[in-house]
Specification:
The protein has 15 helices and 16 strands. With about 425 residues, the chain is of the alpha+beta class. A hairpin with a 2-residue loop joins strand 9 and strand 10.
């Protein structure tokens, strides 16, 4: 008995094919055009990097570092590597190690590719997933955040999804503000510790802000009544936040202030944001971003500023398929040949047709069956018309075209006029 065990799909590692792969390529084309119009530079990063890079950057008490990294043991102590769980840290390593921030300080990069996290798989959340990310360096004001939001807004408009999502924004201050806020949160949540599960209890002592992102329905009302970080900001930061929101309103970008929005990674400062949508009654995040000046100060001796976002292509695919329709262009032509001479020349003829008609999708019948069998294959292919070449057509230096989806008379086209197909 044959063993098909090795051909079973690996949990959380999806295959994209037919219309899904076509839509993802469509997303990539739209993104490339947007990135060109905003003058961003594309970068390609390795799939692997050292575990210590992510531990020192993402924070020890984060889901990614604690339980989601695919770690590969190294040959030496402290030489372990892992599949990249996100793109920001790898991008920072690239620009710092390659000296890309020298000279003109305003640098803008983008990337598109797979990331890897050992997550509990569910709809729109896989262990291998595709991300489109943008990172902006060298801007110490909120113009970078404005443009980042405009980029995502344009992408959603191009996909006709701008009215299907909600932009949520919060201002979380700097590391000093959050340090004070964490102490206040601890005093508040400690009163309800008897309702916490083990995971929340651990978060309470290591990073209470992570509780704000907990999905446990028991804690929902408790979280909504917890102190807001905004109340503990100084007047200048509140004014900056107000001016930022005022600019978004002027640009006609709808938003919602979510005072309990805290990104799952520790390196974010000041403004953070997410685009969310509801699918089958469950709230999903399709894009998230924010400023990470504090992270750059930790890894560089210079004052470097940075902000960015990442779009989950898998969830974007779900949202797009739920609200839009994009079907791969059907096959234009199907070439069938019968007769010894035409069969031997079928590839030469098909290449001439493709050269004369670069945008024509053409498939050649490989089965070499009889005329009826080949014509049946042409019908099954979904082609608009069939190109027929037999010995008669070769003798007269022409080919015959017969339409399959509309009633029109068959026509003959000379080999000298193949560009008229």
């Amino acid at each position: 008995m044959k063993n098909y065990f090795f051909f079973n799909k690996i949990k959380g590692f999806p295959y994209y094919y037919y219309n899904d792969s076509f839509i993802i390529r469509y997303f990539e084309d739209v993104i490339k055009n947007i990135m060109i119009s905003y003058n961003y530079n594309e970068i390609f990063m390795p799939f692997f990097d050292k575990v210590g890079l992510y531990k020192s950057s993402l924070g020890e008490v984060t889901d990614i570092v604690e339980k989601q990294m695919f770690v590969i043991p190294g040959y030496k102590v402290n030489d372990n590597v892992c599949l990249r769980p996100e793109g920001t840290v790898s991008c920072i390593k690239l620009v710092l190690s390659s000296g890309l921030l020298r000279g003109y300080n305003q640098k803008k990069f983008w990337y598109f590719g797979p990331m890897f996290r050992r997550e509990n798989t569910q709809l729109g959340r896989n262990r291998q997933f595709i991300q489109f990310g943008v990172e902006i360096f060298g801007i110490n004001n909120y113009s970078a955040e404005i443009e980042s939001i405009l980029v995502v807004s344009r992408l959603l408009k191009c996909l006709n999804l701008n009215d299907k999502v909600l932009l949520e924004i919060n201002f979380i201050g700097d590391s000093c503000d959050r340090f004070r806020y964490k102490r206040i949160l601890f005093k508040y949540f400690i009163k309800y510790i008897f309702l916490f599960n083990m995971n929340c209890k651990r978060r309470l002592y290591f990073n209470p802000t992570r509780i704000l992102d907990d999905k446990d329905s028991v804690l929902y009302d408790i979280i909504l009544q917890s102190p807001k970080v905004y109340d503990f900001l100084d007047s200048k930061k509140k004014c900056d936040f107000f001016l930022f929101l005022n600019k978004l309103s002027y640009l006609k970008i709808n938003y919602y202030i979510n005072y309990y929005l805290f990104r799952g990674l520790d390196y974010y400062d000041y403004i953070v944001y997410e685009w969310t949508f509801f699918f089958r009654g469950v709230k999903q995040s399709i894009c998230a971003g924010g400023r990470y000046d504090g992270l750059l100060r930790c890894v560089s001796n210079n004052d470097i500023y940075g902000t960015g976002f990442a779009v989950g292509i898998d969830r974007l695919l779900i949202l797009f398929k739920e609200n839009c329709s994009l079907i791969k262009k059907s096959l234009d032509a199907y070439l069938i040949c019968f007769g010894n001479f035409s069969i031997n020349l079928r590839f030469e003829i098909s290449e001439i047709i493709r050269k004369k008609n670069p945008f024509l999708s053409l498939e050649v019948d490989f089965y070499l069956g009889g005329y009826k069998k080949q014509f049946s294959n042409a019908n099954k292919s979904g082609a608009r018309f069939v190109i027929i070449i037999g010995d008669y057509e070769l003798i007269n230096s022409c080919l015959k075209i017969k339409y399959l989806k509309k009633k029109e008379n068959q026509i003959y086209i000379s080999f000298l006029n193949l560009g008229d197909i």
